[in-house]
Hints:
The protein is an alpha/beta fold.
Amino acid sequence: MPNSIESLLATGTKLWLDSIDPDLVRSNRAAGATGATSNPIIVADLIATGRFDAELDRLARQGLDDGKIAWQVTDLLVRDAQKVFLPAWQATGGDDGYVSFEVDPLLEDPEPGKGDRSNFPERPGGCFAEIGPVPFSPLPHAKRVAEYARLGRQWSAGHQNRMIKVPATPAGLDALEDLVAAGVTVNVTLIFSSRQYEQAREAVWRGAQRRKNLDSFKSVYSIFVSRLDVYTEKAVPQLSPSAQGMVGILNAKRIWADNQRFWAEHPTPLRQEIVFASTGTKKPSDPPWKYVEAFAGSDIQTNPPATNEAVAKSGRSFTRQVDQLPPAAVVEEIDRLVDMEKLESTLMAEGIAKFANPQKALLAMVAKKRAAVG
Length: 374
């Protein structure tokens, strides 16, 4: 039986883990993974296991508020993963071996209510940060941009192999140029469309050109895949069986090809790459390696632990598929029936909520544990 992970890596794919669980980081590194990504869902799920209660207790006894405790634990988990993947970063001269750290998802929270903004130097209205959750209103655009820039610099300082994840929202996109110009390595996330990718890439490139040199310039663009297919099953049911379930693959492959063309015309010492994200299948009838197989051959796949495990056990041999589009008739049908603007708008709203809500849950968990200690 072939070693399926080795077969995938042999096509030219870099394998990252969509988790910073310390145990999974070590086991996936041993299997061939060379990086990892994190997000609020991952961190909240890890905290919920109770495995990190001792660390939470230690921080609570220092008198830290809920927000600071949550971010200190996140920072610790990412730091530990960075240590595991640092040899890959060193071996590739900074072209691989990264762990992504996502800045505060509550920057994009559209709902007024209770939240923790103790990570902010000021609260809306000019009040200095207080301890614990307080009522707040959604931040204005300029404030969001400024906070992305500030937090990106803060959480990247002193780290060789940490990427800062910034969402491709209007404020996130507007913060990219200054972040990259300041030397921050970015992973632009929540990309669902070519429009978002192009805006992100152009902003990143403008920032890179403001640096003294491009020696350490590295950027990646996380294109979400399976969520598009979940969306079209509900929103575009008239797609034929041949086209349904192929929208995410077609969209990501087109963006990958665009990225290849652009950076071939603007060469840099390190590769500026696509991250194929949201690669876990959502439809029970789909094989768990559906998206892994489709994107084999280039750039980065950040896969959920269960997907990597299924690939490892599959006994499959992988070949380069990333530059092979679906049949022309399928492409024509998707282009004719799928409204990409509507898709992007819907999935961005869902994506923001999927990250903001776990962050709120995490803060609530921390508050409960801190109260128990106090």
